[in-house]
Specification:
The chain is of the alpha+beta class. The protein has 8 helices and 13 strands. Helices cover 48% and strands 20% of the residues. Strands 2-1-6-5-4-3 form a 6-stranded antiparallel sheet. Strands 8-10-11-13-12 form a 5-stranded mixed sheet. The chain starts with 7 loop residues before the first helix and ends with a strand.
């Protein structure tokens, strides 16, 4: 049972059925109440009409035994004096309740008066107000419920009299019972139809979701990220879910492929210094006099730098971000990184940013290494403030970067000069690291043309 109602379709069906059930019960109760009120009102109108007809005859001094309203076999009528004495009643009336008196046989009338009330009726006048009560009566052996109307009339001989006349409520009871029976039979059937239709509609609506789920399960089992979930030809939430899922799969596929290339390239790059170092050590083991100590140290340093670069890239890929509370003065950092480098000039104004001093220093060092590697004679560093941004420019007077390659150079292990040896050019990770650090600091790193020729790399970071 818990598994059944754990599905969206079952919950949607149950919810729709409950909502419709509550609506039907409320509507049914309102219909029954309205029907009963209207039928009781009609019975009261009929009873008032009969009572006023008898009151009119009394106002016209018609004797009790000649009142036409007393001859109706279906209308119980009583005429009662002010002190509650029954002076006239229908001939077939056998029992009555709900009026001023339960008597059914008239007693001798005693003279009455209107009293001293300022609102008393004049002789022959019928009261405008009608009061209604519910009760029962037995007429000619038949007992029914009635709606009684009471009308006052001031007579010339007997004073103030009250006429009670009833109208049967059998039609009201019958109509209410019939409506209730119809509701008790029809409502469950209607709820069954609602539940069935909701179940079918929900199943049809969720069929694409089930297709997405099955395809995602297949992708997980096969680890084939090139597969995509089916996209419905609709413009609803399910279609948007499918498109978003496919976009996520595409991004995941690209990320995994990038990771695979990274691992392959890293293995390839590590192989060279390790092989060189091993060769030198093996030669030294066999012929100690041939040991190239400087070459071994150089290969070890290169291997150490490559391992540090790979470790930093792994940390950046894992989402490492700088602490927002740290503040770095870029002008001082630029002078610090340029110190001791031949042919590098610095023109910097103070610009403070939030981030990691070590990572930002690594960016400047990588950019300066790249500039010195490609410069003919000189490189320059500038720092300026520009509308909420700190802009660091590193330029050289070399050949520059072709426009078609200005984005590709920021990819990992990319070296534009294929003939250039790894010993001279490095592993091709410096610019990739620099851009990743810039992005994680909320900035950008782009390549362009320097004013004096050569390449210009601009680092933009938000001011602290």
């Amino acid at each position: 049972m818990s598994r059944l109602f754990g599905s969206v379709r079952a919950r949607a069906t149950l919810g729709a059925t409950l909502v419709v059930a509550v609506a039907l019960v409320a509507a049914g109760a309102a219909v029954l109440l309205s029907l009963r009120t209207n039928l009781i009102g009609e019975a009261g109108t009929q009873a008032e009409r009969s009572a006023r007809a008898v009151a009119a005859e009394l106002a016209a001094r018609t004797p009790y035994d000649q009142l036409s309203g007393l001859d109706d076999d279906h209308t119980p009528v009583q005429v009662v004096t002010e002190d509650g004495t029954l002076v006239a009643a229908g001939e077939d009336l056998e029992r009555i309740s709900g009026t001023a008196t339960g008597a059914v046989r008239p007693a001798a009338a005693r003279p009455g008066g209107g009293g001293d009330d300022g609102d008393a009726l004049e002789p022959g006048e019928i009261g405008e107000e009608t009061t209604f009560t519910n009760g029962s009566a037995t007429v000619d052996g038949t007992t029914q419920d009635y709606r009684f109307a009471a009308v006052e009339v001031e007579t010339h001989d007997s004073g103030l009299l009250t006429v009670y006349a009833g109208a049967p409520l059998a039609a009201e009871h019958g109509a209410v019972r019939t409506a209730l029976t119809v509701m008790l039979i029809g409502f469950p059937l209607l709820l069954g139809v609602v539940a069935g239709v909701t179940w079918l509609v929900t199943r049809r609506a969720l069929r694409p979701v089930e297709g997405i789920r099955r395809e995602m399960a297949a992708i997980t089992a096969s680890e084939d990220l090139a597969r995509r979930v089916p996209e419905p030809d609709t413009h609803d939430e399910v279609a948007r879910l499918a498109r978003t899922t496919n976009e996520t799969l595409a991004a995941l596929e690209a990320s995994v492929e990038r990771q695979r290339r990274f691992v392959a390239d890293a293995s390839h790059e590590l192989r060279s210094p390790i092989a060189s170092l091993r060769t030198q050590l093996e030669v030294a083991a066999a012929h100690p006099e041939l040991l190239d100590l400087d070459g071994a140290v150089e290969d070890t340093v290169r291997l150490q730098r490559l391992a540090a670069d790979l470790l930093l890239l792994a940390r950046l890929d894992a989402g490492e971000r700088p602490a927002p509370a740290a503040r770095v003065e870029l002008a001082a950092l630029a002078r610090e990184e340029a110190a001791g480098r031949a042919g590098v000039t610095v023109d910097a104004e103070e610009a403070e940013v939030a981030g990691s001093r070590g990572q930002l220093g690594r960016v400047l060092a990588n950019l300066l290494d790249n500039a010195q590697r490609h410069a003919r004679s000189a490189a320059a560093v500038t720092v300026r403030r520009e509308r909420g941004w700190a802009v660091v420019g590193v330029s050289d007077d070399g050949d520059g970067v072709p426009e078609a390659d200005r984005e590709r150079i920021f990819e990992r292990f990319v070296r534009l000069d294929a003939a250039r040896s790894r010993d001279d050019g490095g592993a091709g990770l410096g610019l990739a690291i620099a851009r990743d650090v810039a992005v994680r600091h909320g900035g950008t790193l782009t390549a362009g043309d320097a004013p004096a020729g050569g390449a210009l790399f601009e680092l933009r970071l938000p001011l602290a």
